[in-house]
Structures are given as structure tokens and as C-alpha cells.
Amino acid sequence: MNRVFSPKNFMIMAGFIGGALAAFMTYHGNPANMGICIACFYRDIAGALGLHRAAIVQYLRPEIMGIALGAFLSALVFGEFRARGGSAPLVRFFLGAFFMIGALVFLGCPVRAVLRLAGGDLNAVAGLAGVVAGALMGIYFLKRGFNLGRWQSTYTAAGWLMPLFMLGLLLLAIARPSFIFFSKEGLGAAHALLGVSLAAGLIIGFLAQRTRMCFVGGWRDLFLVKDTYLFSGIVAFFAGALVVNAILGKINIGFAGQPVAHTNQLWNFLGMTLAGLTATLLGGCPLRQTVLAGEGDTDAGVAIMGMLAGAAFAHNFQLASSPQGPGPYGPTAVIIGLVFAAGVGFFMRESLD
Fold first, then answer.
1. Is residue 2 part of a domain?
2. What stretches pass through the bilayer (predicted)?
3. Which one of 59, 71, 93, 284 has the lowest number of neighbouring Cβ atoms within 10 Å?
4. CA proximity to 241, closest of 41, 3, 34
């Protein structure tokens, strides 16, 4: 029995359930190949709060609040809630912002890259290759002493801020006051019922908190220390999504005509290289950052604030891509982000030799 419920087997089960649930969310109304996309959903939240003016991507996505609150409840129940922070917060803010810019040039986070591939979108291959390349760059810096500094325990009240922020967003999603923006068409208008979305988020948040699931950390650990624990969750997530897509008849193999995707493979690759590198330097993908914020990690909360700001910049300044290709200034922003992230990796080392 202990062998059946070993940590790795639990990770595989959690990954399969998460992938199946994410794919099934498209059946309930979420955009195709976007049942769960952490970057896309933070972008929609930024729009709902009026941080950007793209009217078709404005919605308070309950999945995000559910993930954070599910992780929070899990951490409380299992005694793992610890208020901590203070590890280079301003750097984390900018890394979070550049992560979001890279993800929106690709049109999806590492979670959505896996979901896109499970739906037959071969453009995701370039994106996943970029995640691996970014993780390898991050490993290069980690091996040479990169460190954002040690976190410190802080006031319990500080650790509650992000869970309370997420609860506040959830209450706004329920109340729908006039000062919150909700898309009337486009991606923001494509969503499951609030209760279904919240339930999916709570389940994924709980599972991700118990397993430490991370869609960049899996690649990092695979290449850095040859550990397949986190990577097995990525593979299982893909398998779960693939099975559900096959059952629902939602697999369309090819490059052209894929939902919310473009075929410029250079910027698919480089956008996700930036995402993979920044996530490695941050210590986890946006799913992992959301879970950590639910556990009381204020540094992860700062990274999330950076992601919201990055989403606002991406849509206010024409950095985000569209199905027609990269935005006018997206490639330039990706290059700037890669230079910034590489500079962080090089200069923030315990010893400069």
C-alpha cells in the first residue's frame, strides 16, 4: 500500500488528474487548448482590474483564486503554512513581469504549452523547446552560484496577504461590480461557470501544494540532478489531457489554424526561452508561484504582482502576440528580457569569478 501511494506515484496521479481536469474545462466553456493557463488567466485578471485596455481578455478567472486558496487550505491543514519573504523582492517583480511578456509572445505559459501539445498543436514543440533552453540557461547560472538571497520568517499577517487578495478577487468575481471589466466577446467571454472553475482550481491547488508540481522545475531537476519526480508530473499531466481530448474529439494535429496560437517558431521558441529562464531564476513556474503565495511566501506574491504588471505592459504596449504573429514590439521586449534575466543570473552570484 505504501508503494502504491509513494510520493512519485502520487505525483503521477496528481499530474494525470490535473491534466484531465484542465482539458475537461474546455468542454465547460474555457477557450480551446486553454483549459488552465496560468499566464493567460493572470492576463485576464489584469484586464478585469483595468490594468490593460484589451477588451477581449478581461475576466476574473476563478481558477487562479481556486489554485491559491486550495494551496492555502492544504498548507494550513498539513501544517505547511509559513510566512516568509525578503529575498530580492524588486528583482522578483521584474523577473515576473518579463516571464509574462515571454509567455504572451508565445501565447501561453509552460502549463498551456503542454495542453496545446496534447491538443495536437505542433507549435507547442517550439515553445517547450524554449522552456528547456531557458531552464538549461538557468541551470548554468545555478551551477555558478546564482542566488536571490535567503528568505526570512516574517509576520504571519504578511503571509495571509495573498490568500486574502485572492479571496477578495473571488468576491469581486461573484459580485461583478460595475468597476470590474468583463469581456463581452473573445477569450475573456469564454469561460466555465464560476462554481465549476473555482472547484477545478481548488483541486489543482490542493494537488499542486501536496506534490510541489512545477512545469519548469521538472525540466530543471531532470537536467540538473537527474531527478524525475517533478518531470513525471509534467508527463502525467500531458497524458491526462491527451486522454480527455481524445475522448472529446478535440485533437487537431498540425501547425496552422490552431486555437490562440501563431506559427512564428522563432518567437515561440525565444518567448518561452525567456519564460523558462525567468521561472528557473524565480524558483518555479507561475503555477508554483501561485501555490507558494498560498503557503505564505511573500516573495512569490511579489512575482505574481510582477506578472500582473507584465500582462498590463504586454497589452498596453503591443508586446503580446495574436494568431497573426508576434506584436510589433514583442520581439524587442523578449530580447530585453533575456538580457535582463541573464544579467540577474550573472551578477547575483555568491561569488563573482
1. no
2. 9-27, 64-81, 93-118, 124-142, 154-175, 187-208, 229-249, 269-287, 299-317, 329-348
3. 93
4. 34
